[in-house]
What we know:
The chain has about 425 residues and is of the alpha+beta class. The protein has four domains: about 1-85, DNA Polymerase III, subunit A, domain 2 (DNA Polymerase III, Chain A, domain 2, Roll); about 105-210, DNA Polymerase III, Chain A, domain 2, CATH 3.10.150.10; about 220-325, DNA Polymerase III, subunit A, domain 2 (DNA Polymerase III, Chain A, domain 2), CATH 3.10.150; about 385-420. Helix content is about 30%, strand content about 30%. The protein contains eight helices and 22 strands. Strand 3 and strand 4 form a beta hairpin. Helix 5 (about 235-240) packs antiparallel against helix 6. The protein is elongated and about 90 Å long. Residues about 335-365 have low confidence and may be disordered. InterPro entries: DNA_clamp_sf.
Amino acid sequence: MKIKKSVLVEALKVLGKVVSQTSPVEVLRSVRFLGVGEQVWLTATDGVESVTVEVAGDAGNMEDFAVEYKALRELIRSTRGGEVEVTGKRLDWPEAEAVPDDAVTVELPPDFGKLLALAAPVVNLREARLALRGINLFRDGVTATNGKELLNLPCPLKIPEDMTLPFPLALLTARPEGAGTLHVWRSRNERLFRIVIGGFQWQGKVLPGNFPDWKQVIPADKTLDYRIEIHKPEQIIAFLKTVPDCPPFHAVELNVVPNGVTVIPNNFPDMELRLEATVIGAQPRAVLALNKYILLRMLQQGYTKFRAHSDGRIPVIAEGGSGRYLAMPIHILPKHQPEKEETKMENVENKVVSAPVQTVAPNHEPETNPLDELCNTIDTFRNKLKLALDESTLLVRKVKEVQLAQKQKERDFIQAKRAIERIRMAI
Length: 427
């Protein structure tokens, strides 16, 4: 079978996302070639998902064989010229389950692949909850969340119930264009799916578990009492790329000032960017602080309108892109504000010393209200308590991540040990 070298390289980039190169099973580390005439189908599987890519080639009457992925990479490196001649051996390849007649068939829009590409950066593959490692499809569109941010992209899909696709790594690599088809059906108490877009085909299992009821997180329009519209997002994007990391929050403040906003990293108050922006609505009583990476993704995807609440206690909705981007503001006390207040106090003291002494009647001196002091003390205590709770929640998540990573290492060790034992027995 003859295939253009460039075509085979692009196909292996996609299939390499599915092939298990270290698997003891030969099928799982191989690529199947099935060709008739000038049509060739290349297939790879990891035992759960299966990906097929259609390419142009020269297969003669009928050819069906398999080649290990590593051997194909070596063949490409060692072949000179623009065409590769591939030969292999027949393997008992597991056939993908056929789509039954009663399967649900949904027509996918031409931009479906682009929507998944926009949602992919929000997915956290290390999340303990399996449902959050994928992208959710429902009647009105596509949704992805990692528990800290949420992206909702409108896209009408005629599916009877929502489903969560596993992370579409092969699809994101292939970038298929044009309208496609989604098939969903049940088999042996599992939900299976098949997505076909042009010459790309992806089949696998729907992720188990319930996706979070994210609609309850979206605040009502009446609760968002002010809006910030950024006119030159490229300035903020360039500025954020220069801001050093400061875990765990990576907080960046958007301070409303006359005729615009100032962008100030919470842990680096000397770095400041001031730019023009349109602010409509109530005067914010709390500084809007967002995670640096979340804000960067928002701006890079075209979300330049931020709707928020003046108290900063509910999620922020970013608009202007392909859908709605939600993120919870960070409730921390800015470190640079007390320094400014102390500077102001020093200036006031200097002015009082240099001013002429004036006699003021004792009865006219303002008295401190104990109730106001009590309210201020309570507010300060609440802020400290909220910060402590946020930090404790973050520590709990990190502990769970470490436990999961340790369990995964133990599983990998056991699998490697079993593979070595199988090799010894084969020898």
